[in-house]
Write a structure and sequence with these properties.
Number of strands: 0
Mean pLDDT: 77
Oligomer: single chain
Strand content: under 5%
Number of helices: 4
Low-confidence stretches: none
Radius of gyration: 19 Å
Structural class: mainly alpha
Shape: elongated
Order of helices and strands: HHHH
Length: about 70
């Protein structure tokens, strides 16, 4: 479980590092295509659902493996 938490934390920090960009003054005045159409929230919601599904899947697999290891002993 500790490895999963460590992996998730390091993954989140690495993703935030890639997300840093230099924004000029001209780019801050106009909204992007996604923001203008309101689709950015759809993209964020889909990403959140996918990441939650992956997390729940790995957590479920971890529980099953632990149960099998206990049963083996």
């Amino acid at each position: 479980m500790h490895k999963l938490i460590l992996f998730t934390t390091s993954l989140l920090f690495s993703i935030s590092g890639f997300a840093q960009t230099v924004i000029t003054k001209a780019e801050t005045d106009k909204p992007s295509i996604m923001e203008g159409n309101g689709k950015i929230y759809v993209v964020l919601a889909v990403c959140l659902v996918v990441l939650t599904g992956i997390f729940l899947f790995t957590w479920n697999i971890e529980k099953r493996i632990s149960r099998l290891e206990k049963h083996k002993e």
